[in-house]
User: Fold these one by one.
Assistant:
Number 1:
Amino acid sequence: MNQTCILHDSSAALLLIDVINDLEFEEGQRLVEYALPMARNITQLKLEAKKRGIPCLYVNDNFGQWQSDFKHLVKRCTKRGVCGVPVACELLPQRDDYFVLKPRHSGFFQTPLDLLLQNLHARKLILCGLTTDSYVLFTANDGYLRGLEIFVPSDCCAAVAKYRHMDALGQMRRTLKADTTASLQMDFEQLLQK
């Protein structure tokens, strides 16, 4: 089988963090309330990013499934009756998307994400997904420590409570110099300037 590898040459990358998620945990049903509108916003942002050649990377927890892969994860999270199915189905990956499985909170910890971003020549990260106050925050922090510019569209991430979402966004603005402009107000032309 002949596969073509598409390598983008963009100064930015869109990271979709833990959006393929069964949400089968204690606060999962509460999170769906915030995650579904978030997913719809990410869908639109992803379309705009792809129009501009910005690569989209699914950076997803392996949920302790050490003998699994990303395709198996997608299949499991889109099964009927799974709490997170509406979010996962809204954000199904496309053929040209990239994926990285992570074992812990940060997308950088013990993963090839750093190397992939180098190969894509990405110096700016647009971070979206679940949850603002944990996985998005940890990934943003590690990206900032690597000298990357951080963008976290406020309407493209969610937490189990609005105050936790807002607190995390404030922390990223203060400590990581993150731009938290909502996705509809993002200036892609400025973002893609080298």
Note: Strands lie at 12-17, 56-61, 98-102, 124-130, 149-151, 157-158.
Number 2:
Amino acid sequence: MSMRIVLLGAPGSGKGTQGEKLVDHFGIPKISTGDALRAAVKAGTELGLKAKAAMDAGRLVDNSIVNGIVKARLGEPDARKGFILDGFPRNAAQADTLAEMLADLGQPSVDKAVHLKVDDEEIVRRLLDRAEKEGRADDKEAVIRHRIDVYNAETAPLLDFYGQQGKVVAVEGIGTVDEIFERILKSLGA
């Protein structure tokens, strides 16, 4: 079954975990912008070298570079029958770009945007808990709340973008990993 999924959820919503389970279930790759960037840098591609220069200088990698790397990854054979996108698109402009990329590659558009819904206070609790377990001193409550605010501000328009196309499936992100996964599969009709 081919599935083209955009995974949406705040930091700490369980996107990474659920994304991996979806990979195993559908046998399609999970494409995370961070992973794709690191792979391009490691492979020494032209875009990878540009990305490395930006990262080494402590700058954010330019949108056009990120877009190029994502497009190259979407063009690889394993992504032809579907993919799970994590961390891209981050906003409505990137969602437009993604639609253009898929059209350029002769691929169908995104099937579903799966929104893992977790209450902000629960996210704060989870991230503080994770910070303590992993010894991440930078994850202070104020920093976490700021990350959630940024996420909410960027993602709300994305939910509208895919919502207008009838592609958003909202899934309650509370419960065991398997309970949440079952909800996702059910919402996808899989």
Note: Helices lie at 15-26, 33-43, 46-56, 63-74, 92-104, 120-134, 141-163, 177-188.
Number 3:
Amino acid sequence: MAGSVTGMRAGRATVTVVARDIALLALRLDRVRPGLIESWTGDPALRRHVRDEPRPALRELAAAAERLRRTLEYVDLPPVRRAFLAGELQALAYAARETGGTVAEEIRETYGVVVRPGDPDRYREAHRRVAELLPGPGPLAARLAALRSADEVPPPQRARAVRALAAALRDRCRNVVELPGDEGVRIELVEGRPWSGFTRYLGAGRSVARFSADAPLRAGQLARLVAHETYPGHHVEHLHRAAARDPERALSLTHGPRALVVEGAADLALDAVVGPGWGPWAADVLADAGVHTDGALAEALDAAMLPLQHVRLDAALRNDPDAARDHLRRWLLLDDARTERVMRFVTDPRWRAYTATYVIGFPLVRAFWAGHAPRFRRLLAEPLTPAALVPPAPPGSAARPSPERGLTATDGVDHAMSGRPFC
């Protein structure tokens, strides 16, 4: 298109032009790599323009990404906005490569963090804590399987339970985050998807939140999932992004550094608006909808099992599917059906690297938030990337966050599917 940075001197480039050209690059790449864009709320003429073009070649798009990267160096921007645009370009450049890399490489280039396998000693400690919460005879896996089965929400009651939780969370959300008067979420149940929940912004303050009708949704975990997708999770983040004036916010990539922060904030949503005691609170809401669960036990188990979330990333990083299955069964204490459901996600070419957004995103965002409501609002309103959330390293040393934070980036400055995959 006329006026793109490819036809102008870099010194004259503006952020508006660069943001538009990044959007054009992403829209073109999305034709070759469908699903790359989570949403586009900018000028619909750009999408129509790209749709009418000849299908682009990946090598041309890779070259365009490199030209835009060089141009960005000449644009005067605050550090947060510059990091956001640089991260988007790095993710787009990786997507334009004609040959794929390892899962670890894809995570590094796409989300801006370096990952490594989890610590089995932390997994053993998590098993010990779960065993204390579920005393009794027989193997721990069998005791947990019995709880999971007993706690599953009957399919006929799922829609009602989800809607009740969304309404209650919306009321709590208003105490932390301002909501426009005309916003709303439509709840749908769908079948045959590899995720538990997925939220898409429709525009004009409206979203549709879809929840799996065939996944084994547990009552004790449902509040965290609904908060993740609706209030103050993905739906509310969409509202903030749509209201942003910065032109680059019109584009939301499914796979980019910002996705890790967005998923982390969505996983934090229940803690941000309800906080300690969310288990009994959710149990009361569900009881009014005809669903019963032990809220206190659900909250305690959620905390005990949190270190086991890294097991999913371990499985995604493994090249051997049989070894990945054995790892999931052993440490997540899953039966065969649940193991296969997790395997569908962590081996799907489109979603395998996305596992890192949950595993790394939540502890990183939680440490940044530290219980402060203004920081949670920043997570929703500003284009923060992972590097912006990590405290600077001491002079002369590499930042190595503690295991409690769960962040596996090596130095802290490495450069929207939605729904934490519960089990």
Note: The chain is about 55% helix and 5% strand.
